[in-house]
Amino acid sequence: MQKRLANWGNYPAVASEENAFTQEDQLRHYVVSNDHMIARGNGRCYGDASLGKNSISMLKYDKMLSFDTEKGIMDVQAGVTLDQILDIIVPKGWFLPVTPGTKYITVGGAVASDVHGKNHHVDGAFSGHIIDMDVLIASGETICCNATTHEDLFWATCGGMGLTGIITRVKFDLKKIETAYIRQTQLKAKNLEEVIRLFDEYKHYTYSMAWIDCLQKGDSFGRSILIVGEHATPEELNDTQKKAPLTLPAKRKLSVPFNLPSFVLNTFTVKAFNWLYYGKNYKKVMHKVIPYEPFFYPLDAILHWNRGYGKAGFIQYQFVVSLDKKDGLIAILQRISDKGWGSFLAVLKVFGEQDSLISFPMEGYTLALDFPIRKGLFEFLDELDEIVLQHGGRLYLSKDARMKQEIFWNSYPNARKFADIVKQYNGNARFESLQSERLLLTK
Amino acid sequence: MPTVLLLGAGSDMAVAIARKFASEKYDIQLAGRHTAALVPQQQDLQLRYGIQATSHAFDATDYNSHAGFFAGLPVQPDITICVFGYLGTQEKAQENWQEAAAIINTNYTGAVSVLNVVAESYAAKQQGTIVGISSVAGERGRQSNYIYGSAKAGFTAYLSGLRNRLFRSGVHVMSVQPGFVDTRMTQHLTLPPLLTAQPEAVATAVFKGVARKKNVLYVKWHWKYIMLIIKLIPEGIFKKLSL
């Protein structure tokens, strides 16, 4: 069926022929007889990575195949979403090895973006926890691969944005937990210098990220709240929580029912929001034990929060620069603060080392911010791209909707090698997205 | 635990119905042509809902096998839901008897054949529930899909007669008229969103309909009135319309 599709940023929105399937032979038949096609999961990447002329919806390919409750191994079809997995594994004492800031993504999407979480500096990205997976390539053949068999296909598929083929099945390791709660510590940092120091001081914590106020200037430039956490032990729970340590209390969800007019999010509201958030954290250091949901997925509590940016949509800009290039981070934050184009949310995190072919994470500082689409924004982001590039950094393809091709080719050191492997499995560039066309990855 | 048998278990609608009943702690029997293709669904139901699920080979158009198929089930199901159907292509079916026969044999003959077997068993036991997924297309023949529609019309009439007969035996028969449903069967069509149900909505409606012993179930209430209006159009006018 012809549909108008857009991913989470609501930009771009394009007409696409959507095809769903429930059996692998239906998919195989479709793949060998079509082109200009790209797999799409729950549409939670932000830009155009899963948009194309023909869209293969994975959402109905959603069967859980096995769950080893002894060893903590999950084997699922790629259309299963993380929230469905959490519902099954948490009551049995297991957790996702790596999770991004939303649980409404498919496992296939998690691999294609090689997602990272608050524990990247300790546990790496999602790809590091895959036991094996099946990829259906352009010829119609399904190849089972992992880090030691068909490793070229494996590494080009992790973070490869669906260009090697359709990820159909993924088997991965889980993390053992004793409770569904997190022991969280929040620390106020009065500026960027302090938060960077705190990141280092608290690096032994499994989970860490900072919420950063990008509109502050002078002494308060980069004021932040660092949030670190560990899975709580049963002893750390209160009496109510102790009764059912692996079950979360039920909670109602809020929703943004329609697109808000874009003026709702102007500098003033952003400043007010930032002030409230920082003000709420009235003590320098705060400890509490909270359910895993608000810790990992604070924004999932508001369904369709992306509609808060209005119909024109927004760009989430996420980059990483290496640890020794802190001045790059400062330069970019400076530009954003000067411009005042606001960002409802900015997240700062320190990545650990990662060996990969085309995945986004590398050791360094990563910052993610939202920009509502407006006139002049793309030119401004092009300027930021140049600074990222000068500091040996790169942009996250899952969030990208507008990067110029030369930025991609110059910032990802293995771009050429990746493109060669893609060519090998994706004959005649049959798998193709708006992003891969824009970045000349499938030409 | 009560058990539900799904005839034609591989379709999007059947997947949703199976999940709904499994989430209410029913054991599930999946029946379809290719049991290997049903295995992931079987594992999924067991894993997600902690119930027992089994897969069974069943071919709607292999009429002679139906008695053996039903007798061979490990447990006699409390509820039998006939989900399978074949939409086919109207133009092709007009010219090509094979296509027309496939539409009629799947939607009508096959359904009658297997439900006859189930009905006899339920009548003898004086208990059980039979659900047939028919179609609003069966309520009045239209040029765009009258071969499929006439087969479904036959199925609807069959279910109504069966309901009448089995009422005194305490067996409940429910006919379901889903209207447009967003499934693989209809994904090449452009459907009006207001009149189109998601498979999950059909599943919930079927579950509630069984619990409330409904006779005829329209998933989206609009359809009852749309079809009422369509049925009221005088034939002299109706034949001139392009529907």
From TrEMBL, chain A:
Pfam families linked: FAD_binding_4
Domain FAD-binding PCMH-type: 1-177
Alphabetical list of InterPro entries matching this protein: FAD-bd_PCMH, FAD-bd_PCMH-like_sf, FAD-bd_PCMH_sub2, FAD_lactone_oxidase-like, Oxid_FAD_bind_N
Domain of life: Bacteria
GO molecular function: FAD binding; oxidoreductase activity, acting on the CH-OH group of donors, oxygen as acceptor
Protein name: FAD/FMN-containing dehydrogenase
Organism expressing this protein natively: Chitinophaga arvensicola
TrEMBL record, chain B:
Gene3D superfamilies in the record: NAD(P)-binding Rossmann-like Domain
Record-annotated membrane-spanning stretches: none
GO molecular function: oxidoreductase activity
Keyword line: Oxidoreductase
InterPro entries cross-referenced by the UniProt entry: NAD(P)-bd_dom_sf (IPR036291), SDR_fam (IPR002347)
Any single Pfam family the record assigns to this protein: adh_short
Keyword Endoplasmic reticulum listed: no
Assigned GO CC terms: membrane
Positions in coiled-coil regions: none
PANTHER family found in the cross-reference section: DEHYDROGENASE/REDUCTASE SDR FAMILY MEMBER 7B (PTHR44196), DEHYDROGENASE_REDUCTASE SDR FAMILY MEMBER 7B (PTHR44196:SF1)
Family: Belongs to the short-chain dehydrogenases/reductases (SDR) family.
Record protein name field: Short chain dehydrogenase
